[in-house]
Specification:
Radius of gyration: 16 Å
Distance between the termini: 30 Å
Order of helices and strands: HEEHEHEHE
Helix content: 25-40%
Strand content: 15-25%
Length: about 160
């Protein structure tokens, strides 16, 4: 008899995005992303962090102050990292991400050919960059939906 308590594709891919977020060294916001093709094959992963070669210990992680002394001028978002990490064009793919994409990431998502976004949190709903993001995604027909939590607890011991 086939096992009945296996996790769904959405649980699997969002779980991987959540696990990827744990690689982020940002003390305030950890975001993870997982890009999946139409056959449920993982194309790429990403998390928010400094560009390759930029020493995280020497880069600013502050959220306030002179803009050049904050993380915002430097951090690559999880979605952009996942797109850039993909070895093949993610045209037609689905992006699982723990935080709804900002307007800058929306532009990269559109340009890459991703067709659907499944997001865990939309905590910046109504903010200008969030509104712009949704406007662009709607304009080009990229679907987005909130991940439906199952409240299943998965434990990974490493």
């Amino acid at each position: 008899m086939k096992r009945q308590d296996y996790i769904s594709w959405d649980e699997y891919f969002m779980g991987i995005a959540m696990l990827s977020a744990q690689r982020s060294k940002d003390s305030n916001t950890q975001v993870g992303a997982c890009i999946v093709d139409e056959n449920n094959k993982i194309l790429s992963l990403g998390y928010n962090g400094m560009p390759i070669g930029c020493n995280d210990d020497e880069m600013p992680w502050d959220r306030e102050g002179d803009p050049v002394d904050t993380k915002y001028m430097y951090v690559c978002h999880a979605e952009l990292n996942a797109i850039l990490n993909s070895r093949i064009q993610p045209r037609g793919a689905t992006l699982y991400v723990t935080l709804f994409p900002c307007n800058e990431c929306a532009k990269a998502i559109i340009q890459s050919g991703i067709r659907e976004i499944v997001y865990l949190s939309d905590k910046y709903d109504g903010m200008d960059d969030n509104t712009a993001s949704k406007k662009m995604l709607d304009m080009v027909g990229i679907k987005y939906r909130e991940y439906k939590r199952t409240n299943r607890k998965l434990v990974i011991e490493v």
